[in-house]
Amino acid sequence: MTKREDIQGIRGLAIAAVLAFHLNDAMFPAGFVGVDMFFVLSGYLMSVILGKEEILNLKVFGDFYKRRFKRIVPLYAILIAALLILVPCFLLQRDVLKFYEDVLWAACFATNIHTVLEDNDYFAELYDSNVLTHTWSLGVEIQYYLIVPFIVLAHRKLSEKCNFFLHLLLLGSLAFQLLSSPNASFNLLPSRVWQFIAGGLAHDLSSSWSADLASGSSVKYEKLRTDELADAEVDCVIDGIEQPTAFSQALESLSTDFLSFALVALVLSPWIIFPIPVLRFIAVLMTGGLLVMGAEECRQGVLLTMRPLVYLGDLSYIVYLAHWPVVVMWKSVADVVSLPMMAIACCLAITFVVSVIAHHTIEQYFIRAKAATATIVVGILYGFLALALMFNLPLEINKRMESAPAASSVNVTAAMKWNEHESHAIYYKSRPFKECVDDSEGRAMRGGYSGKREYECVWKPKNSTGSLKVLVMGNSISHRATKILKPVIEKSFPQVALMRLYAMSACRPIEPARGCVPFLEKMPVLAREMQPDVTFVIWDNSKRLLAPLTDAANDAATADLIAFLKPIANASGTLILDEFYPTASTSAGMANSMHKRLLREQSTKDLKGTLESFTTSHSSYFARLDNIHIPNLLRHNTSAGMCGEEKGVCWWYNRRNLHAYFTDNVHLSSDGQELMMDSYSDILKKAIDRLGA
User: Fold this and answer.
1) Helix (H, G, I), strand (E, B) or coil at 406
2) Name one GO cellular component term (predicted).
3) Domains of the chain from N-terminus onward
């Protein structure tokens, strides 16, 4: 009997994909499907463990839960206890407060549920200082472990009457994932059950395959050894069966290697080759295929049984637990969003040193320990968690770690608090201001279409004495622009009776992201139905418009932009196109960087850009705009407002009070919005003057 090293090899590949994604998601954008591979592996191994039991009763269930508890919970509890000390030492106070909120959910293996309830985006949280983001998948795992014995039991009971029970369950779960919201689709157990079931079906298929080969053998399931590492052992030789020739063995091994390399190319590709649902399905199918093919040792291939990859698989659980807190704390201390190569190497080194030591000591101890011992240890650690939170231990440690700011003419303490708050502003979860209310009339104008309600609202000024209608359309930048326009209109433009917002985050004309096409198609429809007096079209960035301009007369990007703007202009009295404005280029977002620099008494004098460098880098963009000739189009020179405090210089923060002008590097903070008020007032006055109103 030989150890099924290919399973650990698949596990090693899965954790390598996750590591690659978390360390550099731009280079390895498909690495997140490593988690999908883990789910398939778990489904397979749970089927192995429960499949070897002839009778499923309460004792079997109890033994199963005890083994899963010993395998997962003690190390997880140690992680949480360690983070209670490490988080306040390396992260900011706002991150410690976020940790308070998240750790109780994590301790209950419910991070995935919390994420859905809070409507948080997993991919957005990768750029936040949340050390527990990665625990969502462990929540899914534990939740599946709780129900899998009942699934296996139901499958056995129904197999005679309904042999397709698992297939129906798989299809139902897959349908839930495809039809539910993106957040629920990613995080919730019902949308992931199909991946576990796929692993279970892979086990059933390999078992049936072996039984057919044995022709008459009474063995129903593979004789697999399942220790607490969830490894499996099989014998390539089946009694009474003539063994394959050397050539056929080599061919079968080569087939496995081909599939293995294809899976490597899929998950470690620098591009997302397929739409995400298709990518997931292919990764699950390939993982299941490798599990079936490797059921006999002679078909396991070379790649998946390479010792380094197998050993990485042995370490995978601890690596998964440890790597993300290491990455988050490194980013916080270094004040970066993306890790440079040296930082990646350091994070990997720390992760593997911790993982190797913990694997050969703590992990092995709990695998061999009695369930009672593991329960006592977990109880002590969770008790420590409860007491630490009750007496605010992490917050007290954090306060001692932060030094008091030096004396200054500016209230630095107040500036730090302000920047800390702005760096955590979640603008995309609410309407721009409370007076901007639900817009049923606007939805009707769009034929009932609604993208994101927080980005669709209407405001009617109370002091209005006129009948002018203003329409603001674009992405999240336009959402912020309405916060500037509101006080501008209230102060200087009583003739405005209505301002309507129709926006969608991350959607840009002429190069729409996935899911943006219906939204963009409704923009001219809304303008036509509303007939606004003034329309603002506002968005940031465009790869096509910023690309080098070689032939102005025949430029496709310019032509596409004109085709997009013309129907809106035809339906509007005046069309205002906001030009791109100079943005910050800090490592971790302007407000966050400002807060950290003030906290650490570092200089802020370099937090600026020059107007010359901005116009140079955007020369092709401005040249394209110069070739747009629409009679009622006004271009809003936003850079004049952003760079008006000092000639030729674009400061990224208010030097009078040390408030950042940006929450991240793009979206304006309240001070940034105030900076732009005169600019928006001037352009709105020009537009209304054109109308003769």
Assistant:
1) coil
2) membrane
3) 34-210+274-296+306-396 (no CATH), 423-691 (3.40.50.1110)
